[in-house]
Write a structure and sequence with these properties.
Blueprint (H helix, E strand, L loop, with lengths): L1 E5 L11 H15 L3 E7 L7 E6 L11 E7 L3 E7 L20 H19 L3 E5 H5 L11 E5 L20 H4 E2 L2 E2 L1 H8 L2 E4 L2 H6 L10 H4 L6 E3 L29 H12 L8 E8 L5 H7 L9 E8 L1 H13 L4 E5 L3 H10 L2 E4 L9 H7 L3 E5 L2 H6 L13 E3 L4 H15 L2 H13 L5 H16 L1
Parallel strand pairs: 1-2, 1-6, 2-5, 6-7, 7-10, 10-11, 12-13, 12-15, 13-14, 15-16, 16-17
Antiparallel strand pairs: 3-4, 4-5, 8-9
Helix pairs in contact: 8-11, 9-14
Length: about 450
Amino acid sequence: MKVLFATAELTPMARVGGLAEAAAGLVVALRAAGITVDLILPDYSETELTDERPRDVTVPKWARPATARRGVAAGVGDVTLVKVPGIVRSHPYIDETGIGWPDNDARFFAFSAAVANLTQTSRPDVVHLNDWHTAATLAFLRKRPPVVFTIHTLGYQGWAGSEWLPRIPYNFSAFESFGDVNPLAGAIQVADRVIAVSPNYADEIRRPESGMGLDHILSGLGDHLVGIRNGIDTAIWDPATDQRLSANYSLADLSGKESSRAALHKEAGWTDDGTPLVGMVTRLVEQKGIDLALESVRYAAGVPYRLVMLGSGEQRLSEWAHWASGNWPDNMFFADGYNQQLAHTIFAGSDLLLMPSRFEPCGLAQMQAMAYGTIPVVTDVGGLHDTVIDADADRKNGTGFLATTAEVPGIVDVLHRAGRAWRHKQRRGAIQRRGMARDWSWQRPAQRHIDLYEELLAL
């Protein structure tokens, strides 16, 4: 089976959020299962390829010039990189101030037009598109194979102005919305199957309070909308083999975790006084509840806990995080940006991992944390609901702690509950080991994707 897989992000070539890691993990697992994956990405930075060869690509006049080259990229394997006007940028979506590039609509509409042409010339069995950046592909395809469209984040829909309406040759009624263009809504209506990246998120987005204005469309899809939980790349996220850790450890022997905990104290400039370390590796956006975490820090000494946050994103939240760490230096440390070494140290060295998300389609950090024996403390939304079992509500099976509300009192309360459990050594170990024992790999989720592809081919 040959699957054309188009995405705007893929670790390690282009990483902004969970889309990059989810796409990379799925592609690796599909290829390991024997699926031929024709991977297509924007050529943001003119990445070096070995065995490079050009691919013909024909696009409408407004999307020219467009070129594509196929080859092997380090850490990725076979890939086709597409260059269209404006696509080469220092960041896929935003400038140095955190503001979206003003021509993002033109950039990704042109990329989608190129993906449509590559679909016609390469003739895959199935096309798999991801998020709004590739959604407009279905506005440029007349005859097509079965199409699967994955919603990684419903909140980003790629709205574009009415000037784009004359440029939509196919499926016009699906993409037109209130006189403008909504790529995400169009793809949802045209695709043969729509995937949400967790079962609970698939249910949530059918409801008005979580559907981001598209609940009326999503609720009408019936069994054409399915929820498949993401996995994590266990070749990268494994404390037993992770070369970024100062000491490795495993489910059978957790003693090496203390070495990373010591490294994290050193990074933050703290002396270990026995206070639980709470880690966050996150994008600084409102969705992630960063403001809730920062507001809660003022209560950290009384809970107690110490917060180590690594992330980048909105300038307002970055400035707030710097301010909070400056005002409460004994209770908060903030590292601006993304540093793989520090990220792995946080996952391994933290006692608890905080994810106060207002919504979370799936979330990867909570699974990465559990793989490292770090107890997740999360809000009860989306994929967090599917992956974390509250250890107070279910003493026998609990793997973490769920906040019932995405509000500061709820975050402070759940951190207090988690810290109380962490200080009980026997209970802490039981919770850690349950999380580490779970299979968070891509193997089963990838098989569910393959089953879905085969189902479509059999129709």
